[in-house]
Amino acid sequence: RTRIIKVDPENPEDDKIGIAAEEIKKGNLVAFPTETVYGLGADALNEKAVRKIFEVKGRPADNPLIVHVSSVDQIYEIAQPNEIAKKLIDAFFPGPLTLVMKNKKVPKITTAGLDTVAVRMPDHKVALKLIELSETPIAAPSANKSGKPSPTKAEHVLEDLGNLVDVIIDGGETKIGLESTVVDTTVYPVEILRPGAITKEELEEYVDVKYAEDFSVAKSPGMKYKHYAPDAETIVLVGKNFLKKATQIAEDFVKKGYRVGVAGLNLEEKRNDVIYKNFGRNLEEMAKNLFKVLRELDKECDVIIVQGVEEKGIGKAIMNRLYKAGRVFRI
Ligand code: TXA
Ligand code: MG
Q1: Alpha helix ranges (H) inside the chain
Q2: YrdC-like domain: from which residue to which, for each copy (predicted)?
Q3: I want to staple 230 with a disulfide (CB 3.0 to 4.6 A). Which of 49, 63, 244, 298 is the partner?
Q4: Distance between CA 189 and CA 170 in Å, rounded?
């Protein structure tokens, strides 16, 4: 049975987080909020505990986990940051940035046998307190079933993994809504393996950066898997007059008897036989609401038509997730 513990995200109560920390110490699974998405956590140094993560998520064993820390000292206990990594740690930790570095002592199951380890210090009071009270780094992938959109609310975790995790800490909706930027610091220029809220431009103020965009040779094992995919047929339209064109396409599908949803920025309702959902007013709001809206529409629709955005700033991360969610067309 899953225990759900509601906490105040701004001021998490020690005794409540302590209950979850005890579970981590026992080698059990705890889902917890971060500023990006909810994570499915276990003691990163306990092989048996980490194995449970892979089992519960249905995650391929060759896809390594991110190890979460609560202090800079803890980074040095598990990894060997080079000068470049140190610069980025100074500049961006805690925050939505994961650094791939040389591994020091994290077991192979956590790193999927690589000699590197991915490390992140979340900028979230609940996550930091959980790691601190657990007295160990916490390995945590996003707390969704493999192939589903990442969870941005405790209810999403319950939907996907209900009764498979020991504790879910409910700290409300996550702020950013997309997973962290993953950067490989063992090469130079450093490589963005997964775009996120920390953009290439921001990183470039400190180091030389390029996108690892050759997706055919997956450098980050996670790059080769289809992620974030709703069950519904998902169509992404990039270009002008989205509302008009999406509504035309929706009309064709409705005539054939399909249930259709349209999701975009600042949308107004055009037809009452189509479900319209708003991502919000700007790209930050879209990032925050993207996975939640896809999950909502997936429950009610056979076809989802999504507004694509310009691949600039956080738009790069949004489009990276949409490429994996469905088919992208220029209009
Ligand atoms: O925001 C986030 O990063 C969330 C929260 C919970 O922290 N976590 C998350 O984890 O998104 P996950 O497992 O869903 O994605 C981790 C990504 C995968 O694409 C994985 O392949 C990559 O990081 N990764 C992990 N270790 C790596 C390594 N040593 N080298 C290259 N890529 C690595
Ligand atoms: Mg994930």
Answers
A1: 14-25, 47-57, 72-78, 83-92, 108-111, 125-134, 154-161, 200-203, 242-255, 283-300, 314-325
A2: 14-198
A3: 298
A4: 39
pTM over 0.90: yes
Per DSSP, the three-state class of 10 is coil
pLDDT of residue 215: 47
Q: Is the dihedral of CA 151, 216, 210, 62 positive or negative?
A: positive
ipTM above 0.90, yes or no: yes
Distance 242 CA to ligand 2 centre (A): 29
100 Cβ below 6 A of ligand 1: yes
| Cβ neighbours for 160, distance < 8 A, ≥ 6 positions apart | 143, 144, 145, 148, 151
130 CA from centroid of ligand 2 (Å): 20
Query: What amino acid is encoded at 279 in this protein?
Result: F
- How many Å lie between the centroid of ligand 2 and the Cα of residue 141? 5
DSSP state of 271: -
Phi/psi at 199 (5° precision): -90, 165
pLDDT digits over 38-71, tens only?
Answer: 999 999 999 999 999 999 999 999 999 999 999 9
Distances (CA, A) of 81 to 68, 104, 138, 211: 15, 10, 18, 20
SS3 317: helix
Q: For 144-188, write each residue's pLDDT tens digit.
A: 998 889 999 999 999 999 999 999 999 999 999 999 999 999 999
194 is in an annotated binding site: yes
CA atoms within 13 A on the CB side of 240: 0
